[in-house]
Structure formats: structure tokens, C-alpha cells
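I hope you will forgive my troubling you with a question about protein structure. The record follows directly beneath this note:
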Amino acid sequence: MLETEERLLPPPVLWAQRKHLIYLKIALEDCKNPTIQLEKDKLYFKGKGGPDNKEHEVTLNFFKEVKPEDSKHVVRDRGVEFVLIKTEEGPYWSRLLQDAKKHHWLKVDFNKWRDEDDSDDDVGSGTDFEEMMRQMGGLGGGGTDLGDLDGEPDSDDDGLPDLE
């Protein structure tokens, strides 16, 4: 008898990196109690969510190793966010996964991306992971008004004229 095993779809995955860490987001909305297994060379994820509330599953075999004991993750309404600490600080990885093929579900998170030669390595430069997680939570529009960072009102803060 032929066994037809239904393959689960991989969830959308976004990633960015710094010299010493990887930001990873599994963008599966309303995923409650996902199964997450992080090892030094891979991440296994299985969870139910998204607009269709279907099961999704993916194993990410990393390009290089991470430190599972130092890495953190948080489950949010809009997905699961990870800060993965690289085993070796240094040059940026050329890709996230061991295999070089393109995956339609894997994309660069341009909101968090910094080029390797950028000196703007502000987020996550220390080892205070709780602070990093708070900063990550603030990036998703958690009510932070970014328009008044220096305390000075901008010219566009003035009222708009009435439309005719």
C-alpha cells in the first residue's frame, strides 16, 4: 500500500545578522505553543497558525554554528522572534542555511539588516539579552513614537492645512 504523508508547509522566515548574532523571525501569526528545538547547527520549528490556521514545520540547517545556551526566543502574536548568538564572531555569514538554493519562504529582514561594513552596530552590541528582547519588541510598532527621538519638534509636526 502506498503511504501518502502530507508534508507540512514551511512558515515564512525572515533573518538579518550582525557580527556576533543572527536575528530570526518565524512569521506565523497567532501561533500558540509551538515546538522549538534549537541545536548548535539547526533549528526545528513546528506550529499551527497563520490566516488559514494550518500546521507549519521547518528545519533550518545553519550555515555555521550558534550557541543554543546563549540564544533567546520569544513567542509573540505576529510570530516567534529569535536572537541566535554565533559561535564565532567575525565575518558575516554569506547565507543563513547550509544549502545555497533559494527558498520562497526565506527572506532577508531589511528592517533589521545592517551591512557588515556599517559601524552602526547599535542593537545587541552587549550581552544583555533582556534588553535586546525589549528592543526587538519595540521594532514592531509597539506604540513607540519614533518621530521625536531628539526631543526637537519636526517641521512636519505642525498641523496640516484643511483640505478644500
Q: What stands out?
A: The helical segments are 129-139. Confidence is low (pLDDT under 50) at residues 120-128, 138-151.
